[in-house]
Specification:
By secondary structure, the chain is an all-alpha fold. It has two domains: 190 residues, Up-down Bundle (Growth Hormone, Chain: A), CATH 1.20.1250; 195 residues, MFS general substrate transporter like domains (Growth Hormone, Chain: A), CATH 1.20.1250.20. 85% of the residues lie in helices and 0% in strands. It has 18 helices and no strands. α4 packs antiparallel against α7. About 2% of the residues have low confidence.
Length: 395
């Protein structure tokens, strides 16, 4: 029964990934349909991310009051409302209203399912869980590409909503599989954990938060602007092909997390992050070279995603080791908040920059965040190690 439920949970994370890459894939055509500047995608993305922040902050209280299966069911229903609403939108302003259920559903799923898997399954299951997020994020650009080939962008959102409805029905039928009792465990763990103020005073935490912010800034920028990068730097490509490029970064993330799930115990989190960011830097270099055609650039984005893949889960996995188990829950919560702040604002900032300087500045933008990420992480490691040695010497 546990394995069957885990399969349902993986399916839920596929549903979490499905909506995330649609806006980037469909925006080159949506922009024309709404007759707005290309940078306006950033405002919609920011609104979705802001609602995700709100639902993530509310999720601890919801987890204590409601069973995970109910949170997931309502959240998927909210994303379906957002997807159907986007498909029916005839004006740009309508997207902001529909971004409310779109984002609220995503944040609650992310927090509640991660919490449930952490309590009831192994660390390997958690690594592969994030891989399945990539599966969903890879699928939806192809749904959008098929919609553009045979119809309009609205159909991409509508067909994705149909897939979400199927997943929602499976979740409802799986209710008997879910275990009870996690609320008591959550309350016990919360009573033993440090608060946010206490965690912020731990050496290295603030540096890690800024590094996490930098990582998610680069990741979210790729999520939203990769198809537009091809549209702006490679002339004459078909609309459906441009839309499909939205899956490149997600495919790389999925590959990177799949590989890291098998090798993380052997390499360790720190080495895995260093290898990943080195791979990310090589991908950024590749997309900055003005090759003829698009294959080398497409390969570059896959390499970027593969390098980014292990960074997010590895940073969170190291929290108990670097900062102590007493602080780890608060630290991980702060990391998620930093992640959402980066993914909320920095794609919008890039949208404004590229409107004035051109979309070709994207590699430079990504490079800044990659160096900021690895540089701050290395300083945070040394700070945490030094603080740990000092505590041992005092004892």
């Amino acid at each position: 029964m546990g394995s069957l439920l885990l399969a349902v949970i993986y399916l839920i994370f596929i549903s979490l990934g499905l909506p995330d890459s649609l806006l980037g894939s469909g925006w080159p055509k949506m922009q024309v349909s709404f007759n707005v500047p290309s940078s306006y995608a950033g405002y919609v993305s920011m609104t979705i991310s802001f609602m995700t922040i709100i639902s993530a902050l509310l999720s601890p209280g919801m987890i204590k009051r409601f069973h995970t299966k109910w949170i997931v069911t309502v959240s998927i229903f909210l994303t379906i409302l957002g997807l159907v609403g986007f498909s029916l939108s005839t004006r740009y302003a309508m997207l902001f209203i529909l971004a409310i259920p779109y984002g609220l559903g995503a944040g609650a799923i992310d927090a509640s399912v991660n919490h449930y898997v952490a309590d009831h399954y192994s660390g390997a299951a958690m690594n592969f869980l994030h891989c399945f997020y990539g599966v969903g994020a890879v699928i939806s650009p192809y749904i959008m590409a098929m919609a553009l080939r045979h119809g309009v962008w609205n159909d991409g959102y509508r067909h994705t909503a149909y897939v979400q409805i199927g997943i929602l029905l499976i979740c409802i039928f799986s209710f008997p599989l879910w275990k009870n009792g996690e609320n008591e465990k959550d309350a016990e763990n919360a009573a033993e954990s440090a608060g946010i103020r206490e965690a912020l005073k731990v050496p290295g935490v603030i540096l890690t938060l800024i590094a996490f912010y930098a990582y998610c800034s680069g990741e979210a920028t790729c999520f939203l602007w990769t198809p537009s990068y091809f549209a702006g730097t490679r002339q004459g490509l078909p609309d459906q092909l441009i839309a499909s490029f939205g899956s490149l970064i997600f495919g790389g993330l999925m590959l990177g997390r799949l590989i890291s799930g098998f090798v993380s115990d052997k390499l360790g989190d720190r080495l895995l992050i260093r290898i990943g960011i080195a791979l990310e830097l090589s991908g950024i270099l590749l997309i900055s070279i003005p090759f003829n055609g698009y294959m080398a650039t497409a390969a570059g984005f896959i390499i970027i995603g593969t390098g980014m893949g292990p960074v997010y889960p590895a940073i969170q996995h190291m929290a108990p080791i670097n900062f102590g188990r007493h602080n780890s829950a608060a630290v991980i919560g702060l990391q998620m908040a930093s992640a959402y702040v980066g993914s909320t604002f920095m794609p919008m900032v890039f949208g404004i920059l590229q409107q004035h300087a051109g979309i070709a500045i994207m590699p430079v933008y990504l490079l800044v965040f990659a160096f900021l990420n690895i540089g701050l992480l290395e300083i945070a490691y040394k700070t945490a190690d030094k603080a740990g040695r000092s505590q041992n010497d005092d004892q």
